[in-house]
Write a structure and sequence with these properties.
The complex is a heterodimer of chains A (342) and B (736).
Chain A (H helix, E strand, L loop, with lengths): L6 H30 L7 H9 L4 H36 L11 H15 L10 H22 L5 H23 L4 H12 L7 H20 L1 H7 L3 H6 L4 H23 L5 H13 L4 H25 L8 H19 L3
Helix pairs in contact in A: 1-3, 1-13, 3-8, 3-11, 3-12, 3-13, 4-5, 4-6, 4-7, 4-11, 5-6, 5-11, 8-11, 12-13, 12-14, 13-14
Chain B lengths: L2 E12 L2 E12 L3 E5 L6 H9 L6 E6 L2 E2 L5 H7 E4 L11 H6 L14 H13 L15 H14 L4 E5 L7 H16 L3 E5 L3 H7 L2 E5 L5 E4 L1 H6 L2 H6 L5 H17 L66 H14 L8 H9 L4 H7 L5 H12 L9 H14 L9 E8 L14 H11 L4 H9 L2 E8 L10 E2 L17 H20 L4 E7 L3 H13 L3 H4 L8 H18 L6 H8 L2 H15 L4 E2 L3 H13 L7 E2 L7 H10 L17 H17 L3 H4 L7 H10 L3 H14 L1
Parallel strand pairs in B: 3-8, 3-9, 6-7, 7-8, 11-12, 11-14, 12-13, 14-15, 15-16
Antiparallel strand pairs in B: 1-2, 1-4, 4-5, 9-10
Helix pairs in contact in B: 4-5, 12-18, 13-23, 14-15, 15-26, 18-22, 18-23, 19-21, 19-22, 19-24, 19-25, 23-24, 24-25
Classes of the chains: A mainly alpha (342), B alpha/beta (736).
Chain lengths: 342, 736
């Protein structure tokens, strides 16, 4: 078993190749469909033509100002969510760990709510800079709390429970704030908190791209210690992993990714839980070098199609993205919990 | 061994609770240190603190002088690998991937395995015998298999130190034993192993030292012997009365043995002490300056010769005579002890009882009857009905018939086989005719009880019992197994006078009869008669010469191996002895007393006793034949109970056997004595019993044997079978 691969390894590599091929195809297909379909449908064939210069201004605008940014954002944020979920699950060794569950999204929501109510004048779903910053701040605050707690808590299970509690607290605080809100603001908040990929502009895409790219690069660079964590903290430490530091790094990366999503698109549920699970099952491996790209692609696919459904199902009314992801994602999670061997 | 790992002033525990404090311990490279103690005493805490999982409360862990706390995690990972008790649940990881995780400290940034990493993983998996689990999902295998994979992972990390917390938890007895052997191998290669074990017996077997961690923080470190002799385990676990004794008594006894340095390895009262090869008495000395390992073949690896002082000059031993090798040598001896002797400790008082209440010679001879002729005829018929050409198994058939008629059992068995070895010294050695110093008698007598001599090695390999009796050893020795039946310390010099008094000779014969009686009581099926006594080939020659009337030159052989000049001297001694003592050729007891030996007399008694108690008895070589001849002359019927074995290369043997009227069964050019021909003869007798009890008759084999009727007719005409014919002839001779 020297340089040559065993049959089993070759079989595994083949499996990987198939999965990745499928994912990439799905992303491409989804991208095309997202761009093409909508209240004003454009034929896929014509997309390139329009971009080149042909077609009406209106069509070009739809494409360049609405559809393309939205599609790019969906891919970026969907991927980010999935990877964020993967990181947390690896770290906690728990399949239902996710940014939503840990209260990070709830923290973001709390801050957004506070900002919405205090900063008068802004409305609608547009992700204005302030809301984005508020969401970021909220996510990171919640993350900070969790990291702080992790120093005093011995078991990961306890940390998970603490995160859930933080989520509850944030939700409670949010509800508290909402009691003093006006109807319009409540509606806005509610709209925001369901999450949506609409209203994206290229500035947001650029910002998100930078953040997500940076986080993803760091994550891939951390694949070795992430793999070590698969054996548990005790063994990871004995193998030379600086557990303390990586604890913080992993949570921060995860939070960065999910904060990014929450900031731009609001809380999107279940992607972080369902996608890593599905990817692990189809790849039959938990190697980070393989899982991280796969999760990204998987998340992108998931969100692309979910967004498509959200837009097209009851056109012209747009469903909230969380509705769709929950309706698809929750059954997956239930199935996963029921079928898990241990 | 240099100090490799140093636990210095270590206090371990948790912020709220100190579990152990001020631990000071130096561990050598390649040492196996096992922590034992009750649950909750702090073994895991200590291990986790050494490995770095738990922060130390005080003190430091130094490896080759370097403080581990100051190393970064990666450096530490290259020094220490762990196997923990916590269960891990990796998702979708194959066993190979789990093992490969052990290479973490060596792989590059992205954790890709290079060829040397893959090879290390292969080696580790092969060592733990988990290669066939390589592609299986870790979560899908049993706990024991997981444990082995985790040990393999730690091995793949290729660190100088291995820490294991209860590595045998889920392993079945086979894998547990294999793991211990693997650990021993690793320690021999220089890996230092610290582990905690619940199984005390494993810990005692495999460890170089034990660290006993008691609740309350008391810690004791010592070798397994020290732990056992100090009865630490009772204290450690707070065992109720009687429990410790029941579990550890035997082990403690064995441990105590190694502590007495005057028994096996140094005879300080020996006049050759200390061995002139060793300078200081701190190194242990040979048993009577005589290394017991020389006969252990490849285990000894060396050669020896006698020096002028009579000391064995061992060279090239694989296990040199040093204190450090005590445990190794003791272990080897223990293994030999376990393997041979049917593991019986002789019940000496009972045997003495039996021997002391043995019949007198006269009563014994009176009680000897002829074997059962009717049984012989029945068994002959049985043999004829067996599916083979009649008589084609030759002397095996003869043996079968004789055994049946002797024992009175139609289907005799040879399950319990005993070689009785009578040891005594001869005063004759002062004439210088002995092939070796007189101390060798005692030394070999003891070695025989351990299955270390020529005869006893063969016997122990075959499962024959060996019973060694001291009838007259002259030099001091110490043994729990040699029967103390000494009549006197060595005989007189026959060249100058009698070997012993008549009373002493009779006493020796009675002892032999007593031993035969003991064999009968122990339900021994067949007995072989051996001896040990420097100089007894000379006494045997003298006895044979007198009994047969042949000259000294005719009967004297080369004995234990002597030069031409010594041989002439020996012949002269024999002649002189006979001339000086003038023994009565018709009185075997007189002959034994005057020119014989205590061993010869006792052997004679064994032959008579076996005849008396109807046990088939085997004649060995020259000395055995001489004694058998005495027995036959005392009581002719005793011959019917005797069986031959090998044709001794010594000249006198042929003459003695001719006088008895028996032929050897096989010729192997042997002249060792000790009873070394008996095991092979036992094999023939076992064959005889097997033929009778296992072979199918023609009927059972489904063969129509009518084609043999003609042969049977012929033989009937010739008259009976050879046995019946010969016995009939002998009876006629006696009457006539």
């Amino acid at each position: 078993m020297k340089q040559e691969l065993t049959d089993a390894q070759r079989k595994q590599n083949r499996g990987f190749a198939i999965v990745f091929a499928v994912l990439i195809l799905a992303v491409l297909a989804g991208a095309v469909l997202s761009t093409a379909l909508g209240s004003a449908s454009i034929e896929p064939g014509r997309i390139m033509e329009i971009l080149a210069g042909g077609g009406s201004v209106q069509e070009r605008n739809i494409l360049t100002q609405i559809r393309l940014p939205r599609m790019c954002m969906t891919i970026l944020l969907g991927g980010a969510l999935a990877v964020s979920g993967y990181l947390l699950q690896t770290f906690f060794g728990n399949p239902i760990a996710g940014p939503y569950v840990l209260g990070i999204s709830s923290g973001a929501k709390l801050f957004v709510c506070a900002v919405m109510l205090t900063v008068v004048g802004k409305s609608g779903r547009s992700s204005s800079a302030i809301l984005v910053l508020a969401a970021f701040a909220g996510s990171l605050a919640a993350t900070g709390l969790i990291v702080g707690l992790s120093r005093y808590v011995r078991h990961m299970a306890s940390l998970l429970a603490a995160g859930i509690m933080i989520g509850y607290i944030c939700n409670a605080l949010t509800d508290f704030l909402v009691t003093f809100a006006e109807d319009a603001q409540i509606a806005n908040l509610r709209g925001w908190s369901q999450g949506s990929f609409s209203g994206m502009d290229w500035k947001s895409v650029a910002a998100a791209a930078v953040i997500v790219a940076a986080a993803m690069t760091l994550t891939i660079l951390c694949s070795k210690p992430i793999g070590a964590f698969e054996l548990g903290e005790a063994y990871a430490a004995s193998m030379g992993v600086n557990v303390r530091m990586y604890r913080v790094v992993l949570i921060m990366l995860s939070s960065l990714l999910s904060a990014c999503v929450t900031a731009f698109a609001g809380p999107v549920s279940f992607v972080g839980i369902a996608v890593p699970f599905l990817m692990r099952k189809s790849l039959r491996s938990s190697r980070p070098l393989v899982m991280v790209p796969a999760c990204f692609l998987g998340g992108a696919v998931f969100c692309l199609y979910a967004d498509l459904i959200a837009r097209m199902m009851f056109a012209p009314t747009e469903l909230n993205i969380s509705t769709v992801t929950s309706l698809i994602g929750a059954p997956v999670v239930i199935y996963m919990l029921a079928v898990r061997k241990r | 061994m240099e100090r490799f790992l140093h636990l210095h002033g270590l206090s371990v525990g948790y912020p709220t609770r100190k579990v152990l404090e001020n631990i000071e311990l130096e561990i050598e490279k390649g040492e196996i240190l096992t922590l034992i103690g009750p649950n909750g005493a702090g073994k895991s805490t200590l291990l986790k603190s050494i490995s770095g999982q738990l922060p130390l409360l005080a003190g430091s862990v130094l490896m080759q002088g370097q403080d581990l706390a100051k190393c970064d995690a990666k450096e530490r990972a290259r020094k220490m690998a762990v196997v923990l008790t916590e269960a891990i649940r990796p998702e979708y990881m194959t066993c190979r991937e789990v093992c490969a995780a052990g290479r973490y400290p060596y792989t590059g940034r992205m954790g890709i395995l290079r060829r040397e990493d893959e090879e290390a993983v292969d080696r580790a998996m092969a060592r733990m015998k988990v290669e066939d689990l390589a592609e299986r999902d870790f979560g899908a295998i049993s706990d024991g298999q997981k444990q082995r994979v985790l040990v393999a992972r730690a091995l793949a990390q290729e660190t100088p130190v291995l820490l294991m917390d209860e590595p045998t938890s889920y392993l079945d007895i086979r894998y547990r034993t294999e793991l211990m052997e693997t650990l021993r191998g690793l320690a021999a290669e220089g890996k230092t192993i610290l582990m905690s074990l619940h199984e005390i017996d494993l810990a005692l077997e495999v460890s170089d030292r034990l660290l006993c961690v008691k609740e309350g923080g008391e810690v004791f470190c010592g070798t397994p012997q020290e732990v056992l002799t100090g009865e630490r385990i009772r204290d450690l676990f707070d065992m109720p009365a009687g429990m410790y004794e029941k579990l550890f008594k035997e082990k403690a006894g064995q441990a105590a043995l190694t502590q007495q340095d005057h028994t096996f390895f140094a005879n300080r009262s020996c006049k050759y002490f200390p061995c002139h090869k060793t300078e200081d008495t701190d190194n242990f000395n040979c048993l009577f300056c005589y290394c017991p390992l020389y006969a252990m073949g490849p285990d000894c690896g060396g050669s020896f010769r006698y020096t002028k002082k009579g000391v064995k000059d061992c060279t090239g031993c694989l296990v040199p005579h040093r204190r450090e090798n005590y445990p190794v040598i003791m272990e080897k001896l223990r293994a030999f002890y376990r393997r041979g002797q049917g593991n019986m400790e002789p019940d000496i008082p009972a045997i003495l009882e039996t021997v002391n209440s043995a019949e007198s010679l006269a009563d014994c001879m009176h009680g000897i009857t002829k074997p059962d002729a009717e049984m012989a005829r029945l068994v002959r018929a049985d043999l004829d009905s067996l599916a083979m050409p009649p008589g084609s198994l030759g002397q095996i058939e003869t043996a079968a018939i004789r055994m049946a008629s002797i024992t009175g059992k139609r289907r005799p068995c040879a399950e319990r086989r005993r070689i009785i070895v009578l040891c005594a010294d001869n005063g004759l050695v002062e004439e210088g005719i002995g092939s070796a110093p007189q101390e060798v008698t005692a030394a070999q007598a003891v070695n025989m009880t351990f299955g270390l001599t020529g005869m006893s090695a063969i016997a122990s390999a075959r499962g024959d019992q060996v019973q060694v009796a001291d009838i007259g050893i002259a030099t001091p020795y110490h043994s729990d197994k040699v029967l103390p039946l000494k009549v006197r310390e060595g005989t007189g010099n026959i060249v100058k006078g009698s070997a012993m008094t008549r009373a002493e000779a009779e006493r020796a014969i009675r002892i032999g009869i007593g031993l035969a009686r003991q064999a009968s009581m122990d339900a021994v099926d067949i007995v072989g008669v051996g001896e040990m006594g420097i100089g007894n080939t000379t006494t045997s020659a003298a006895v044979i010469s007198v009994l047969t009337g042949r000259s000294a030159e005719e009967v004297t052989g080369f004995g234990g191996g002597i030069t031409e000049e010594a041989f002439r001297h020996k012949v002269k001694c024999v002649r002189t002895a006979i001339t000086v003592n003038r023994p009565d050729p018709d009185d075997p007891v007189d002959i034994l007393a005057k020119v014989g030996g205590l061993d010869l007399a006792a052997m004679c008694g064994v032959f008579l006793g076996c005849a008396r108690y109807q046990i088939p008895v085997v004649i060995d070589g020259l000395i055995s034949a001489a004694a058998a001849l005495c027995a036959v002359r005392l009581c002719p019927d005793s011959k019917r109970y005797m069986f031959p074995s090998h044709q001794s290369a010594d000249r006198g043997y042929a003459i003695a056997m001719d006088a008895i009227g028996m032929e050897a069964w096989f010729k192997l050019d042997m002249w060792l004595g000790e009873g070394s021909g008996c095991p092979m003869a036992f094999a023939v007798m076992e064959a005889a019993c097997a033929v009778l009890s296992r072979m199918a008759t023609f009927e059972k084999a489904g063969i129509d044997d009518s084609y043999l009727d003609k042969i049977r007719e012929d033989r009937k005409q010739q008259g009976c079978d050879t046995i019946c014919r010969r016995e009939a002839k002998e009876e006629n001779e006696e009457r006539g």
